[in-house]
């Protein structure tokens, strides 16, 4: 089994999401000792934002790609190949200004490739990257999950559910710590709740929801 461990927080050692991804990976490996882990730090090695050169080769319009297009395409192919090779993805996704970090969005833009992670059909888009388990370590300074207004304001977990679903991934699990900027007691409670989520998320077999649906 291959696990891709991804961090995106810019806060280095002070990051709650990084702490949670590390604990999640450790718990997964304890429960599944045969797991091979690959690590990607999007804050340190951030892909450039998706631009016309990254799109160029994909359109098939140009007979001879430019050097910039070849370079950008190579980066996209490296990232999507790495993603597709993973059975499990543990993804650190802090909430920045109501959504995910720009570095994480740039990574997702590289993955969203017709013919690789999705395709269009007469009945609409179909995901091609199913069969994976994604565990998202979600960290939030405030509390968004318990009110209608909070749920409407966050475009972090909601966005990740949609985009991974678009890729065909039905097994998306969340390890959530929210309210971590609201004081010591709320932060401690948030971390305790997240660690309970880790226990649940890592003891269940990979892609167990798909297995249950197929049974």
UniProtKB/TrEMBL annotation:
<dbReference type="GO" id="GO:0010181">
    <property type="term" value="F:FMN binding"/>
</dbReference>
<keyword id="KW-0520">NAD</keyword>
<comment type="similarity">
    <text>Belongs to the azoreductase type 1 family.</text>
</comment>
<dbReference type="InterPro" id="IPR003680">
    <property type="entry name" value="Flavodoxin_fold"/>
</dbReference>
<keyword id="KW-0560">Oxidoreductase</keyword>
<dbReference type="GO" id="GO:0016655">
    <property type="term" value="F:oxidoreductase activity, acting on NAD(P)H, quinone or similar compound as acceptor"/>
</dbReference>
<dbReference type="GO" id="GO:0009055">
    <property type="term" value="F:electron transfer activity"/>
</dbReference>
<feature type="binding site">
    <location>
        <begin position="15"/>
        <end position="17"/>
    </location>
    <ligand>
        <name>FMN</name>
    </ligand>
</feature>
<dbReference type="InterPro" id="IPR050104">
    <property type="entry name" value="FMN-dep_NADH:Q_OxRdtase_AzoR1"/>
</dbReference>
<comment type="function">
    <text>Quinone reductase that provides resistance to thiol-specific stress caused by electrophilic quinones.</text>
</comment>
<feature type="binding site">
    <location>
        <position position="9"/>
    </location>
    <ligand>
        <name>FMN</name>
    </ligand>
</feature>
<comment type="subunit">
    <text>Homodimer.</text>
</comment>
<keyword id="KW-0288">FMN</keyword>
<dbReference type="InterPro" id="IPR029039">
    <property type="entry name" value="Flavoprotein-like_sf"/>
</dbReference>
<dbReference type="GO" id="GO:0016652">
    <property type="term" value="F:oxidoreductase activity, acting on NAD(P)H as acceptor"/>
</dbReference>
<feature type="domain" description="Flavodoxin-like fold">
    <location>
        <begin position="1"/>
        <end position="198"/>
    </location>
</feature>
<feature type="binding site">
    <location>
        <begin position="139"/>
        <end position="142"/>
    </location>
    <ligand>
        <name>FMN</name>
    </ligand>
</feature>
<dbReference type="Pfam" id="PF02525">
    <property type="entry name" value="Flavodoxin_2"/>
</dbReference>
<comment type="function">
    <text>Also exhibits azoreductase activity. Catalyzes the reductive cleavage of the azo bond in aromatic azo compounds to the corresponding amines.</text>
</comment>
<protein>
    <recommendedName>
        <fullName>FMN dependent NADH:quinone oxidoreductase</fullName>
        <ecNumber>1.6.5.-</ecNumber>
        <ecNumber>1.7.1.17</ecNumber>
    </recommendedName>
</protein>
<keyword id="KW-0285">Flavoprotein</keyword>
<dbReference type="InterPro" id="IPR023048">
    <property type="entry name" value="NADH:quinone_OxRdtase_FMN_depd"/>
</dbReference>
